[in-house]
């Protein structure tokens, strides 16, 4: 009875480390941050894009940084929508920055140790 290896060929989830900056600078709460993600998906892909299941796992109010979870099949769609967003509320210029993306949550935790994003 040897040891068994389990290999995950197609991971179910992808994790993204992202932050949002606005001009003029404004500290956003988690609800506003989630709304900005929804707006990005709607602007890029319409109502159907807005229905993409995304979970905000962590949100740091001080650094405006979050870790989100996205189904693997939607990673490219979500990443491109976040990259294309340039306005929120019709007046406020903003930009999402994707720091890292990985199929393993722990790899994001290792990469974020001691980092502050502004």
Topology:
Layout: E1 13-23, H1 30-50, E2 55-60, E3 65-71, H2 75-84, E4 87-88, E5 92-102, H3 105-112
Antiparallel strand pairs: 1-3, 1-5, 2-3, 4-5
Helix pairs in contact: 1-2
Please, could you describe this protein's structure?
A hairpin with a 4-residue loop joins strand 2 and strand 3 (65-71). Strands 2-3-1-5-4 form a five-stranded antiparallel beta sheet. Helix 1 crosses helix 2. It has a single domain (13-112), classed as Alpha-Beta Plaits (2-Layer Sandwich). The protein has 118 residues and is of the alpha+beta class. It is globular and about 60 Å long. Helices cover 33% and strands 31% of the residues. Mean pLDDT is 88; it is low at 113-118.
SSE sequence, one letter per element: EHEEHEEH
The total domain count is 1
In CATH terms, what is the architecture?
Answer: 2-Layer Sandwich
As for the CATH topology, it is: Alpha-Beta Plaits
CATH hierarchy, class = Alpha Beta
Shape: globular
CATH superfamily: Ribonuclease P, Pop5 subunit
| Major beta-sheet overview | 5 strands, antiparallel
Report the mean per-residue pLDDT as an integer.
Answer: 88
Helix count, DSSP H or I runs of 4 or more residues: 3
Give the helix level as a range of percent.
25-40%
Instruction: List low-confidence stretches.
Output: 113-118
What is the rounded distance between the termini? 52 Å
Pfam families: Pop8
InterPro entries: Pop8-like_dom, Rnp2-like_sf
Keywords: tRNA processing
Organism: Synchytrium endobioticum
